[in-house]
Automatic annotation (TrEMBL):
SMART domains for this protein: FHA (SM00240)
Keywords: Phosphoprotein
Record's protein name: DUF3662 and FHA domain-containing protein
PANTHER family in the cross-refs: NUCLEAR INHIBITOR OF PROTEIN PHOSPHATASE-1 (PTHR23308)
Residue runs in coiled coils: none
Ribosomal protein in keyword set: no
Domain FHA: 146-195
Length: 246
């Protein structure tokens, strides 16, 4: 069973009875769902071997009369569309840089039965952070030099007798990383090859002693926009009902 079939079953609960008359003409909810799914596919950006980033802020622009019809359903439609976006992303192994936001907005330049999706990633701003995963714990790398070893004076201390007190350092400039052995007793390997210094690609594994250090570059979301005031209903927030756009 496809995603859109699941969407239609869920939406049926919201639009049965009187709501069913809403969709005799113009845009259908299933078309909006399909457009959102297509937008994710078109904007998918490969960040690393196991991370594909897609927009998390999606605005569906509709002709005024289509927007009014969709507003008649209330929050149920937006909730269903948001769930479709999350489900499709999970099925395609996509990642979001922040919480998913789907809105429906009227656009006077569009004619009935047409729509446009505008999308952004984390309010249009994403910064990148270097991190290492060690024994199930994620550690952010400081910009510049991060020392790893068993000594208490290392930036990241590990419990491994096979490592030196200051065994290895990772140099991170905000975009690229380099791994450098600090004259350790047992040496350092990168993806199975012994190294003294080498570029550190995303998702590569540094091994010191019996410890694996997996390096990743991950997106950081921009701060979230202020929340709508309490008591403002969904139609007012999305369509400006009763006093213009919110």
């Amino acid at each position: 069973m496809g995603l859109l079939d699941s969407f239609e079953r869920g939406l049926e609960r919201a639009v049965n009875g009187a709501f069913a008359k809403t969709f005799r003409s113009g845009i259908q909810p299933v078309e909006i769902a399909s457009a959102l799914r297509s937008e994710l596919d078109k904007k998918a950006a490969v960040v690393s071997r196991d991370r594909i980033l897609v927009p998390n802020t999606l605005a569906v622009r509709l002709a005024a009369n289509d927007a009014e019809r969709m507003a008649g359903i209330g929050p149920a439609l937006v909730n269903e569309l948001t769930e479709i976006v999350r489900t499709h992303a999970a099925s395609q192994h996509y990642s979001f840089a922040g919480p998913v936001s789907v809105t429906l907005q009227p656009d006077p330049d569009l004619s009935t039965g047409t729509l446009r999706v505008d999308s952004r990633t984390a309010e249009g701003t994403v910064t990148w952070r270097g991190v290492v995963d060690i024994a199930g714990t994620r550690h952010p790398l400081r910009k510049g030099r991060t020392v790893i070893g068993r000594g208490s004076d290392a930036d990241i201390t590990i419990s491994d007798a096979g490592t030196s007190r200051k065994h290895v350092e990772i140099l991170w400039d905000g975009e690229r990383a380099v791994v450098r052995d600090l004259g350790s007793t047992n040496g350092t390997t990168l993806d199975g090859q012994k190294v003294s210094q080498a570029p550190l690609p995303p998702d590569s594994t540094v091994q010191i002693g019996r410890t694996d250090i997996v390096f990743h570059v991950v997106p950081q979301a921009a701060p979230q926009a202020p929340q709508a005031p309490q008591g403002m209903d969904a139609a007012t927030r999305q369509f400006g009902v009763g006093g213009g756009r919110a």
